[in-house]
Amino acid sequence: MMKIQGVANVTQAGEFDEIIDVRSPAEFAEDHMPGAVNCPVLSNEERARVGTLYKQASPFAAKKLGAALVARHIAEHIEARFLDRPREWKPLVYCWRGGKRSGAMTHVLRQIGWHACALEGGYKSWRRHVVAELAELPRRFSFRVVTGATGSGKSRLLETLSAQGAQVLDLEALAAHKGSVLGGLPDASQPSQKMFESRLLAALQRLTFSEPVFVEAESRKIGQLQVPDALLETMRASPCLRIEATDAARVAFLIGDYDYFLADPAALKEKLACLRELQSNETLTRWNALIDARDWPALVAELLEQHYDPLYRRSQGRNYVRFAEAPRFATDDLSPAGLKKLAAEILATSA
To answer: 111 and 141, same structural domain?
Structure first.
């Protein structure tokens, strides 16, 4: 065990009982260390106010105002969140650069008697750590890339594989997006690129190198987020497996999986309008008519045949070098029971 002193580095973060991010809520929302709690010592508005005073009036005046605000908020956080912490509590505190904000909180916590430390270099050191790790760590895993045309239930299959004990990396869950033009989730916005990468590193660190990791075939971008180069390159060179579901099973699966779009026809039309550069006006007009008629089976079948399937055929063999040799797993049932059976088959074959 490390000897707790006033400063710790990123590699020692796991030895602390709690990680406290004292940056503003806006900074925390963009990205933060996994598991960190936000205890801002300056609000968004206060941080801007102090910064403006520092640049336009007087650094000394800004420091006085900042000190008063920081002291007030530290007291509030101690009273609201930390009075029940035992004497042995060891929190790690960080701000942007590991300077005044985290230093002030750490000093007060240590004066109370807790074994608090400030993160050396602050969030910036964490960010450098994430970038460095994601440039190397993905290359150490043995991936099994799950391919299959749109509507093959690949994401649900990953969930089922995980439930049966397999190692899984669910990139679309981390990115809060299903990876297609209709992939935005109704109840969640995508994280920032930095937050996505922090979540990705945390997910990779929970995996072992001794067993294969199942991951869905992805393009370079998932929604607005980019898959890090080292991970994408490793995935594209990895063994694949193909899910070959019947058209009827795929249509039924998509109608259930995208039911929130079917409940909002206007939003669905707006999304499909993004395909104007790829589809003719005649096709888009016909699709809008199918939406108005609520003819979901016909609409989904046409979207697969005329848009998604051609994209899939062009991309998989080009991007995944071992796609042609991939074992095939046929199914006409993408219900939970059908996916459970498919996952068992895949694991039996992969053993």
So the answer is: no
What DSSP state is assigned to residue 194? H
**pLDDT per residue as tens digits for the range 72-89:** 999 999 999 999 999 999
- pLDDT tens for each residue of 4-63: 459 999 999 999 999 999 999 999 999 999 999 999 999 999 999 999 999 999 999 999
pLDDT score, position 2: 39
**Which of 145, 256, 130 is CA-nearest to residue 194?**
130
Tokens of 265: 């026809």
Q: Is 240 helix (H, G, I), strand (E, B) or coil?
A: strand
Domain boundary among 132, 155, 177: 132
CATH label of the domain that carries residue 48: 3.40.250.10
Query: According to the 3-state scheme, what is the secondary structure of 283-314?
Result: HHHHHHHHHHCCCHHHHHHHHHHHHHHHHHHH
Examine the domain organization and report whether 174 and 154 are in the same domain. Answer: yes
* 162 domain residue, yes or no: yes
From first CA to last CA, the distance across the chain in angstroms is 38
Closest by alpha carbon to 341, among 149, 164, 145?
Answer: 164
> pTM score > 0.90 for this model?
yes
Is 117 one of the catalytic residues? no
Bridge partners of 225, per DSSP, are 222
Q: Which of 79, 114, 132 is the last residue of a domain?
A: 132
d(Cα 196, Cα 176) in Å, to the nearest integer? 9
- Structural domain contains residue 1: no
My answer on whether 13 and 100 are in the same domain is yes
Active-site position among 95, 117, 240, 274: 95
> Is position 270 within any domain?
yes
Same domain, 66 and 154: no
Same domain? For 105 and 234 the reply is no
> For residues 197 and 189, what is the distance between their CA atoms, to the nearest angstrom?
16
The phi-psi region of residue 122 (left if phi > 0; otherwise alpha if psi is between -120 and 50; otherwise beta) is: left
- 3-state SS assignment for residue 30: helix
Strand locations in the chain, DSSP E? 7-8, 18-21, 37-38, 91-94, 117-119, 143-148, 167-169, 213-216, 221-222, 225-226, 240-245, 328-331
In degrees and rounded to multiples of 5, residue 223 shows phi and psi of 65, -125
Q: Which domain holds residue 199?
A: 136-350
